[in-house]
Structures are given as structure tokens and as C-alpha cells.
Amino acid sequence: MSAHSASAINDMAFSERLGQLRKERGLTQQGLADLAGVHLTQIQRYEAGTAQPTLDVMKKLAIALTASTDWLLFEENERGPNDELKLQFEAVRQFDEEDRKTALEVLEGLILKHQAKRMVQRSQSQTATRETAKAAQGGG
After folding, report:
1. The model's pTM
2. Are 14 and 57 found together in one domain?
3. CA-angle at 62, arms to 70 and 69, nearest 5°
4. Is residue 69 situated within a structural domain?
5. In terms of domains, do 18 and 47 share one?
6. 67, 7: one domain
7. How does pLDDT run across 65-113, given as a tens digit for each residue?
8. Residue 44's closest CA among 36, 67, 6, 8?
9. Residue 118 lies in a domain
10. Calpha distance 61→54 (Å, rounded)
11. Which helix (H) or strand (E) holds 34?
């Protein structure tokens, strides 16, 4: 797969990535169905975007296409750290064990703080939505 086609595939939805990768592997829909142990109709539905595979089928598709499930599911840069964080993580990898452990604890604390903040915001938003609905019904 060329760098250009890999970049183009990464901007596609799962259904498009599946079809493109199948074609790049020189497989027909029936060929992929046979390799993955899935019915042809299901492959057609996945590629049309009218159905989503189960986790078990996703594994079979990834094996048949010699690709990772992450590659099939996620767009480029949808997962993993951005370039700036990659450099930071590279630096942390050079720390001794004690300093790495401290860095991990600090990071886990920040993640928990962020998650708590998001939960509070979501709760406040849901409360405001309920109050607006109640007021609109005249129950204010």
C-alpha cells in the first residue's frame, strides 16, 4: 500500500476502508467472505455502511486482511498521542523506574481530574436541560 493510498484510506469511514483494503489485497467480496468465514451478504452490508460487524467478525476481518482492528476502526490520529505528547512520552521512557512511576501517577491524577470535570459539566448540562423542559411545560 502506497503512502498516498494509506493517507487517503485513513480519512475514510470503516465501510470505505474495508472495501479499499479488500481491493488492495486483490480480494473479491466473496474472497474476503470466504477468508473471514462470513457470509457474502454481510461483507456487502459492511461495505455499503448499512451494517457493523460484531467484535468477533471484526477480528476475523482483520486477520483475513492482515490489518489491525484499530486500523480498520479508527481514523489516523483518532487514537494515540499527538506529536508533542509523543516527544514527551519518549523523554519519560528514558527516566529511571522511580521517576517513570511518579510521572505516571501525576498523569493518572490529571486524567481523573479531567474525567471528574467532564462528569460535573455533563451533569450540569443534563440538569439545565431538564429544568428548561420543565419550564416549557409550565411546571417551573
Report:
1. 0.54
2. yes
3. 10
4. yes
5. yes
6. yes
7. 999 888 888 877 677 777 788 888 888 889 999 999 999 999 999 989 9
8. 36
9. yes
10. 10
11. helix 29-36
